[in-house]
Structures are given as C-alpha cells and as structure tokens.
Design goal:
92 residues; single chain; Arc Repressor Mutant
C-alpha cells in the first residue's frame, strides 16, 4: 500500500456541519469526498465542477435570498403562489 499524507482544510463550523450532513446522507465521509475530488482532478486534469463568476442579476438574486433568510421573510406565503408566479414568468 502506498504511503499516505494528511491534508488539512479550514472550514467555518456551519459549512462543515451542513456538508457533513449531506455527505452522511450520501454515505460518504469528508475524507471520502476529498479523495473523490482528487481522483477526478487526476483523471480529468480539470476541476470537476464548473466554476463561474455570477452575473449581476444572479448576484442580486443571491443577495435577496440571503437577506430573506436572514430576516426569515419569504416572498411567497405558499407553494401555489410560487408556482403561479414562475409559470406566469414563463408565459404559461
């Protein structure tokens, strides 16, 4: 077996907790996820996720969503209103 080495990563507590919960639901540990990342980096010679800089409209939507979460204030009171708004925007 090949020798192994340690990789230390700093994450804020909330990111670590939420990420660990998602990985647990998938059946992976954080170490498994990092190993998979590295194997894909090696196999593809590329980062396995598409990374983009968000445009102004997306940044504004993200800021709005963060503010809504912070204020615990939703734009819609129920799912039906949300779906109706989305369908109207799509021209249905």
């Amino acid at each position: 077996m090949a020798a192994s080495s340690m990789l230390h990563v700093r994450l804020d507590d909330e990111t670590k907790t939420q990420g660990a919960a998602v990985l647990d639901a998938i059946g992976l540990s954080a170490s498994d996820a990092v190993r998979l990342l590295y194997h894909r980096l090696i196999a593809d010679h590329a980062f396995p996720l598409e990374l983009k800089v968000a445009n102004a409209e997306t940044r504004a939507a993200m800021a709005e969503a963060h503010e809504m979460l912070r204020a615990r204030n939703a734009r819609f009171t129920n799912v039906d209103d949300l779906i109706a708004t989305v369908e109207a925007a799509r021209g249905k």
